[in-house]
Amino acid sequence: MNKFDQSFFKKYVPEGTDIIDIAHKHIIIIIDKIILNYFFWVILPTFIYYNSLAIQSFIPFFVLEIFIILIFLKNIYDILDWYNDVWIITKDGVTELDWALFSSNSTSVKYSSIEWLELIQTGFIDTILWKGDIVIHKVWGENNFLLRDASHAFHVLEKIDQIQKTIKQQKQDEEKASPEQNFETVLKALSWVVEEYLGKSWYKKDDSEEKKQFIEKIKKLDGTIDLNSSKK
């Protein structure tokens, strides 16, 4: 991903979200479209116009000029549409951007909501150009994401799959660490109680400021009994 892509598409994701990659449609798609537009709507009409006196007498030359300018503007719009219809891959999920001249629609899916990924290549051309249709199948049969003729399709697929595996591994590590952290918290709380009432600590003593913050946090929880107030 180049720096321009990262800056340009940043406005389509929440502030503070890191963009990992941008999945574009293959450049051959827009090249084919421009060539066809110029051939059928510029070159061919111009050739017919200059070789037909009847058409020249019926249609003024400025009309042909206006028509060619409109085709040029249409090609500019097609280029912008090709460039902006992308998938924005972030650390939180994938955002599908559907661009239009005066409005843009974006839909996001979190990695936890992705059931499986699919790559569709139809023929030898897709293989040698490294392009293909990428489908994100979401859980519960929701509307799937589809990026037709994606550039470097395998790379995009591997990137999403790699992020999913990383998030899954982090979640598993957190679940394994959670019991140990809870046990550590219990030991701290018991240590402070013993220290308060017996004057000694059977667990490693923590910083007094940390203890104060911890106690204030515990007091705010429902069902907590303040032994100091009851002692008085």
Q: Which stretches are low in confidence, meaning pLDDT under 50 for 5 or more residues running? A: none
DSSP strand content: 15-25%
Largest sheet, in brief, is:
4 strands, antiparallel
How many strand elements? 7
Strand order in the largest sheet = 1-2-3-4
Characterise the protein shown here.
By secondary structure, the chain is an alpha+beta fold. 56% of the residues lie in helices and 19% in strands. The chain folds into two domains: 3-163, no CATH class; 177-224. It has helices spanning 3-8, 27-50, 53-58, 61-84, 124-129, 153-198, 208-219, 227-231, and strands spanning 19-23, 87-90, 93-99, 104-110, 114-120, 131-138, 145-151. The strands form two sheets. It has a four-stranded antiparallel β-sheet with strand order 1-2-3-4, covered by helices on one side. Strands 5-6-7 form a three-stranded antiparallel β-sheet. A hairpin with a 4-residue loop joins β3 and β4. The N and C termini lie far apart (65 Å). The relative contact order is 0.09. The model has no long low-confidence stretch (mean pLDDT 84).
SSE blueprint:
Layout: H1 3-8, E1 19-23, H2 27-50, H3 53-58, H4 61-84, E2 87-90, E3 93-99, E4 104-110, E5 114-120, H5 124-129, E6 131-138, E7 145-151, H6 153-198, H7 208-219, H8 227-231
Antiparallel strand pairs: 1-2, 2-3, 3-4, 5-6, 6-7
